[in-house]
């Protein structure tokens, strides 16, 4: 079955971000570094950068990320948000509380006109999130 999964790009913070997201969402995190593939990066100081990370949550969500070593073009993600919906309001509040540590709140978690709970933030790694808890 096809899947559409967020793939986040970082300069050098993919490991820290993905470990943070694992602490928020739970699940299994698998990380491969550029040093695992010696021909991928020339600078030995960048061998521990993340070539690919994948977080599989107990809810069936998949979040992926990588770092961008020197010599590769990096553009900070913009114009896109990771949207997390379909949870209970209680679970949405739990995720919100954890994701909002060090974040910039762009819309506080509150009751939107369509019901449930909804809020937006930019986390401490610069990733925009939208969270929606289903109406009870």
From TrEMBL:
Residues 5-130 form the PhnB-like domain. Gene3D superfamilies: 2,3-Dihydroxybiphenyl 1,2-Dioxygenase, domain 1 (3.10.180.10). InterPro entries: Glyas_Bleomycin-R_OHBP_Dase, PhnB-like. PANTHER family: PROTEIN YJDN, PROTEIN YJDN-RELATED. This is VOC family protein. It comes from Microbacterium algeriense. The lineage of its organism: Bacteria, Bacillati, Actinomycetota, Actinomycetes, Micrococcales.
